[in-house]
Write a structure and sequence with these properties.
- With 179 residues, the chain is an alpha/beta fold.
- The chain folds into two domains: 118 residues, Rossmann fold, CATH 3.40.50.2300; 39 residues, Orthogonal Bundle (Arc Repressor Mutant, subunit A).
- It has eight helices and seven strands, in the order βαβαβββαβαβαααα.
- Strands 2-1-3-6-7 form a five-stranded parallel beta sheet, with helices on both faces. A two-stranded antiparallel ribbon has the order 4-5.
- The termini are far apart.
């Protein structure tokens, strides 16, 4: 198959419009045809009507999760390649994403080059590690934020589950995310 015959159609699914625009422009600059969606239902409609070979998909969307989009893409095109992006990374989500067909799982904020490398790495090779991975402090902060969200922003319940003093948790929650 020559380069001109390679399918360069990619769907980008994220509920953050600014990020969606940035990512779409970055892939268009690299000669890809981009389709953008802000929800699972919108993404499913696009996949049904188009021949899409690649996906960059946010895990958490307003009307469901990105795993549904990957399943739909895999059903329509078993050779498709998708990467899951999320601001709430954990091992269970990563395993689920890989099981349904994602080729990689990246934590936000992932760089454009890291996303591109993961998506287009030869199937027999691993993508190179990110140039700027999240710091240990950032990973800890993300985990605390996720548990806080899952506890419906109840500080006492979050502190109990994290085995942390409530005031310590309140201080962490009041600070900005570390780099």
């Amino acid at each position: 198959m020559s380069n001109s015959e390679i399918n360069k159609n990619i769907i980008i699914v994220d509920d953050d419009q600014t990020w969606l625009n940035q990512l779409s422009r970055a892939f268009e600059r690299r000669d890809h045809n981009t389709y953008v969606a802000k929800s699972v239902s919108e993404a499913k409609d696009i996949i049904a009507k188009n021949d899409i070979h690649y996906g960059v998909i946010d895990l958490r969307l307003d009307d469901g999760d990105g795993l549904e989009v990957i399943l739909e893409l895999q059903k329509k095109n078993p050779k498709s390649r998708s990467v899951i992006l999320t601001g709430f990374g954990n091992i269970a989500n990563a395993v689920s994403a890989i099981k349904v067909g994602a080729i990689d799982y990246l934590s936000k904020p992932a760089g454009i080059d890291d996303i591109f490398s993961a998506l287009f790495a030869p199937p027999s090779e691993k993508a190179s590690p990110p140039e700027e991975p999240m710091s240990a402090n950032r990973v800890r902060w993300e985990h605390i934020q996720r548990v806080y969200e899952l506890c419906d922003k109840n500080v006492s319940e979050t502190a109990r589950r994290l085995k942390m003093h409530r005031r310590t948790l309140q201080r962490i929650l009041s600070k900005r995310a570390p780099n």
